[in-house]
């Protein structure tokens, strides 16, 4: 801890030499006065009071007054330089910490939770601020006062000073014995605080899921345990700290007794004058007071040690994706992208991409498709160099991404994520994002291309409308379109899109797809999507399966191959949606391909299509809850849902279902509790079939019940 503290202070103080010297001179004057004032008593008593020498009295008094004036001046200058020094130091530390965080690669934000980092910024930096601005300089002053004072005490009467010093050893042995435990207690409290902050953060960010899955009790139980542990650990820390404070006080009382007893004896033996004893006693009190102050500072310093350690830990965290020593800038032209035998996995986890290779020609529109979890988004993240591959390489215009400067890479690339983050500023500021080279005309053009201009203009404050709660005041589609607008505005030469149209209604999706089509040629576009209808015009479609690219080609080529792409296409085909996405239909042939309806007569299927009802769900909405009574069967016409199950004490995602998938078929036959929860992870349109309507149908066609029962039994085997 001490080492980290010294290293950090040296690092930050190196550029503040003048202020340091000024501060050192000021405190030296103050210390000089603090020890000289008690020493003057020796001369006052022995040379002025006892012989009643008025001249000597006036001389000593005048010197004391002059010294006091100097002391006041030094005090004021010390306070000023200290305020400036500590302010600058903290300014540097905050800036460095924040800048350092911006340079981190993605794994950093996975490793540290939001609560943990904010605690380091708030609580730890406040502790450091207190130490730099008060505890440390005060401690330094008191420490030097003690040393100089002790030297003077020795020069006054070495035997008495030795006795006092021996007694003083008690002051240091006691705290030393407890220091380790006090440090551990302080660290565990900080960790418990970070855990609790993490839970608060989780409960705020995930409130929809928590409510939806009725996890409040679970969360409350977790929070109660953390609060209880905060109490227990806090109590232990307080006890340790108060013990650390009490030990020096007790030691001081013992020393006092030694001094009066032994000092008195020396006076009786004529080995010490009264003036010397008074000076010794007063100086000792002054030194004792400094020691007493130091004893209060010890717990503070220990606590700050943990804070220094925690802040330093972040500062020493080197980005996993580091900039090359001599990075190269890439020109702003459309570029070709290559992945050569790339293998990659997150942190120490298994390989997610396995020897994946691909080539995307400059100016083309490429799409990554494949089942959920096959590695499409991961591949896109590698193209952005959010991570480096374990093996193989990713290149742009034959240049390894590791060689390219991050600035030029980000300038050439436009990225639209599935999760849009908006800042709490106006719409205009969210689109422009501080880029002074862009004009309002460009901004409006980009907003029009993203199909957002009309919506913005319909708001009373137009482009000056403030965004609240990071965009929670807007719909998912509006947030997504704003994010597309701000990316298009920058006219990137490579445009990477991760499920960007998933939150949009069919009409807006078609508009955005048209805009993207027009960018082809000048911009290389890579789009990750699970909705195949949006990429039928792509130049190249890469089909991922289990971390590998298993098929490549155009839509027509892939359809003719009868492979995974065709299978996925057939699953998604046969659904039609109204332009606003509020009404869905499925055609008879598609319905007949759902296993439980397989082999049914056309007439029956036709009847079934009339019984289907459209249901729409916003992202985060719980469609069904594990354990609830089930009375409907669902088909996903458009959207994406996650399947979650309570496994032991953990609520885990077990699958993701998308366009064309179905769930809840048992509910058509039996009234048994749902075996999993289903939550929409993007705006989702479902076709549902109620059990009572289905059973009514089976009354007229008993053979239907038999077919469905047989299929369900087979599926459950
Ligand atoms: N940050 C991460 N840390 C650890 N594992 C991750 C991380 N991100 C993704 N994964 C895992 O990597 C695998 C591939 O995920 P990825 O998001 O690339 O798949 P995907 O094909 O895009 O699927 P989806 O369409 O559902 O997003 C999954 O098993 C996922 O759980």
In short:
The protein is α+β, with helices and mostly antiparallel strands.
Q: What does it look like?
A:
With 717 residues, the protein is α+β, with helices and mostly antiparallel strands. It folds into 3 domains: 2-316, ABC transporter transmembrane region fold; 337-563, P-loop containing nucleotide triphosphate hydrolases (Rossmann fold, 3-Layer(aba) Sandwich), CATH 3.40.50.300; 575-716, Sandwich (Jelly Rolls). Helix content is 57%, strand content 15%. The chain contains 22 helices and 20 strands. The strands form 5 sheets. The chain has a 6-stranded mixed β-sheet with strand order 6-7-8-3-9-10, with helices on both faces. Helix 1 (2-13) packs across helix 9, helix 2 packs parallel to helix 5 (114-156) and helix 2 runs antiparallel to helix 9. 35% of the residues are buried. It binds adenosine-5'-triphosphate. The site of adenosine-5'-triphosphate (ATP) has 14 residues, from helix 10. Adenosine-5'-triphosphate is lined by residues 110, 346, 349, 352, 370, 372-378, 530, 656. Residues 21-303 form the ABC transmembrane type-1 domain. This is ATP-binding cassette domain-containing protein. It is found in: Cell membrane. Residues 596-697 form the Cyclic nucleotide-binding domain. GO terms for molecular function: ABC-type oligopeptide transporter activity; ATP binding; ATP hydrolysis activity.
Write the layout of secondary structure elements.
Blueprint: H1 2-13, H2 17-49, H3 54-103, H4 106-111, H5 114-156, H6 158-205, H7 207-212, H8 216-268, H9 274-316, E1 337-344, E2 353-360, E3 365-369, H10 376-383, E4 391-396, E5 399-400, H11 406-412, E6 413-416, H12 427-432, H13 440-449, H14 453-458, H15 476-488, E7 494-498, H16 506-519, E8 524-528, E9 540-545, E10 548-553, H17 555-560, H18 564-572, E11 575-577, E12 584-586, H19 588-591, H20 602-611, E13 613-617, E14 622-624, E15 632-638, E16 640-647, E17 650-658, E18 662-663, E19 677-680, E20 684-690, H21 691-700, H22 702-716
Parallel strand pairs: 3-8, 3-9, 6-7, 7-8
Antiparallel strand pairs: 1-2, 1-4, 4-5, 9-10, 11-12, 13-20, 14-19, 15-18, 15-20, 16-17, 16-19
The structure holds adenosine-5'-triphosphate (ATP).
Domain ABC transmembrane type-1: 21-303
Keywords: Activator, ATP-binding, Cell membrane, Membrane, Nucleotide-binding, Transmembrane, Transmembrane helix, Transport
Pfam family, one: cNMP_binding
